[in-house]
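re the bet — no i am not wrong, look at it urself. input seq straight from the record:
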Amino acid sequence: MGRPLPGYRVVLLDGDGLESDHGVIALPLRQRPVGLTPGYQPEEGGPPPIEGDYYLTGDVASRDREGYITFVGRADDIFKSSDYRISPFELESALIEHEAVAEAAVVPAPDPIRTATPKAYIAPAPGFAADEATAAAIFDHARRRLSPYKRVRRIEFAELPKTASGKIRRVELRARENELAERGERAAREFRIEDFPEG
């Protein structure tokens, strides 16, 4: 994302609301930032954008020693798996590098051991079948691109639900995963990484 523009002071707030080098991107309101729209309304059911002395963007980022900010993901999309914080954005970015993946959305699937495990809903690219061979190729690609704790462990090929503006509705996918877990079921066409040993 780079460095903040002149006229903007950008801070990152950690889980305790303290300024840090990793956390939610926020604009301090003590001195009103240039260009901040008055009367902004959050999405229905979403968190309010103003909390105390800060305007919260809802984006999570990290800042390096030179002050450059790098996007990590949306605060409401990040989840924990085996006590590691997982950014769907990073996993999706790795997945769409594979030629068989047209679109991908990663969500947490409830897991009794890991709390949650990364699951990818994938829209296959034209010419690729939504089958075991394609899933095996995608798992192999993810093994080469991602650290073991970040790897997608489940894949389901599907048409991704979207808003009118074309944004993927991860909230629907998360709700589906929670419903399946509550019923003790798994998706009929779900592929799991343990079914595809390395080699």
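see?? Residues 11-73 form a domain with the Luciferase; domain 3 fold (CATH 2.30.38). told u. also Residues 117 and 141 are 18 Å apart (CA to CA). so pay up
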